């Protein structure tokens, strides 16, 4: 018997992989299968952002005189419908997981005491364990976070209606995504961040993202002194004395591993379970994967970690590689990035993306997105790519894999692209190939 604790992307994929190999697998999930990705994060952002984009596209076409009005939204209806779809998706995932032979137990807490496994208060026999207990929102140490009207991505579904004034605290991807959504819905939104907003992005990609956040007030290099209100949030007070009106505050201040039920394992200062490249913990026979082992907190990484753990449980030596794993962000356009992990070397080329589905009408405003490649000039290998266009997240999934396999810009000469498309990576790679050929003649 192999016990998997947690039914998110890492645990579910690991459990299915083990069951398909003929192992007896029991998956312990406290609530519904699918994890935070389905119930609070990725899918929720997809649902909300689809509506935000619809409103923005309608606004563009109204400005062009094509449409005569811009729709308004019913936030309670949105939340109700999101829950209905999430329940449907969860039932599909449940059926898919059971179909391959995984036994799923809901409503129970799985925990570890070293190599001893408990389901609730009952100790169960396990030949191996995969701990995939996920993460939870990090709550900053500032006064007022307990007030009504202060939310995290987990509690945001309890917000009854659109706020007039929302303050988003945080400067990463999640902060930008939710700020974009609620600004499109008509709320007055301000972002407060201690550092630069989206400061980890390439400068050109960051500049593109900030275009999508036009209309959102941004306070960078700003510290929050406290959240004010008598029982319910009224404002956010900054350390420099500025007071921002708010009837809703969203804490988008990162994640921390949910590892408190995993006793006896070596952990880092933040509670992340320490694993090696084979997902092995400090306790023999116990493996861990997904958010509980700490960054990068990415669903595709978690899925792969779960499979790597399963392979090693099966005795098939497999090493986890993060090379080429794409990252994404959803604003007015999709933003996606992938790299081989070869540092900051290479030559970077950027260009406007070609207009196509989802961006044709934006050309009137002078903007149809951005594409970027990074190339090793010595070998011609593509070592990085990024795009800010409709469909970028799909494009970078395959580009990331091809980079891992060593694709060169010369190889793009043999690719016949779909047209019309917003893919500017293809054209840039071909341009780079021609540039290097001329240089070497």
TrEMBL record:
Residues 2-306 form the FAD/NAD(P)-binding domain. Keywords: FAD, Flavoprotein. Pfam families: Pyr_redox_2. It comes from the Archaea. PANTHER family: MERCURIC REDUCTASE (PTHR43014:SF2). This is NAD(P)/FAD-dependent oxidoreductase. It comes from Methanoculleus nereidis.
């Amino acid at each position: 018997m192999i016990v998997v604790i947690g039914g998110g992307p890492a645990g579910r994929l690991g459990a299915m992989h083990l069951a398909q190999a003929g192992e007896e697998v029991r998956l312990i999930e406290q609530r519904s299968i699918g994890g935070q990705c389905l119930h609070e994060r990725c899918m929720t952002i997809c649902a909300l952002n689809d509506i935000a984009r619809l409103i923005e596209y309608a606004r563009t076409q109204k400005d062009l005189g094509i449409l005569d009005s811009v729709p308004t939204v019913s936030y309670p209806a949105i939340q109700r419908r999101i829950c209905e779809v999430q329940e449907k998706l969860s039932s599909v995932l449940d059926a898919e997981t059971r179909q391959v032979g995984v036994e799923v137990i809901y409503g129970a807490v799985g925990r570890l005491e070293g190599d001893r496994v408990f389901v609730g208060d009952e100790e169960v026999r396990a030949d191996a364990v995969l701990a995939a207990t996920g993460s939870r929102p990090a709550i900053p140490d500032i006064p007022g976070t307990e007030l009504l009207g202060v939310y995290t991505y987990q509690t945001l579904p309890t917000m009854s209606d659109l706020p007039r004034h929302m303050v988003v605290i945080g400067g990463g991807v999640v902060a930008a995504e939710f700020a974009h959504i609620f600004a499109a819905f008509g709320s007055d939104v301000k972002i407060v961040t201690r550092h630069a907003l989206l400061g980890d992005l390439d400068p050109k990609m960051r500049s593109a993202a900030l275009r999508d956040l036009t209309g959102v007030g941004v306070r960078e290099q700003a510290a929050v002194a406290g959240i004010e209100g008598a029982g319910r949030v009224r404002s956010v007070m900054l350390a420099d004395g500025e007071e921002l009106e708010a009837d809703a505050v969203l804490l988008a201040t990162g994640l921390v591993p949910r590892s408190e039920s995993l006793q006896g394992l070596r952990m880092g200062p933040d509670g992340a379970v320490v694993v090696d490249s084979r997902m092995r913990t400090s306790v023999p026979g116990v493996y861990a994967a997904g958010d509980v082992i700490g960054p990068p907190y990415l669903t595709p990484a978690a899925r792969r970690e779960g499979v790597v753990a399963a392979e090693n449980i099966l005795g098939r030596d497999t090493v986890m590689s993060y090379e080429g794993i794409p990252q994404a962000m959803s604003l007015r356009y999709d933003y996606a990035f992938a790299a081989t992990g070869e540092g900051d070397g290479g030559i970077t080329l950027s260009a406007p993306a070609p207009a196509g589905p989802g961006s044709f009408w934006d050309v009137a405003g002078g903007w149809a997105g951005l594409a970027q490649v990074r190339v090793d000039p010595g070998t011609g290998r593509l070592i990085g790519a990024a795009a800010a266009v409709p469909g970028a997240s799909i494009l970078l999934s395959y580009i990331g894999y091809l980079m891992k396999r060593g694709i060169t810009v010369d190889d793009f000469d043999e690719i016949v692209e779909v047209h019309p498309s917003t893919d500017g990576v293809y054209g840039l790679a071909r341009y780079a190939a021609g540039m290097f050929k001329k240089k070497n003649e």
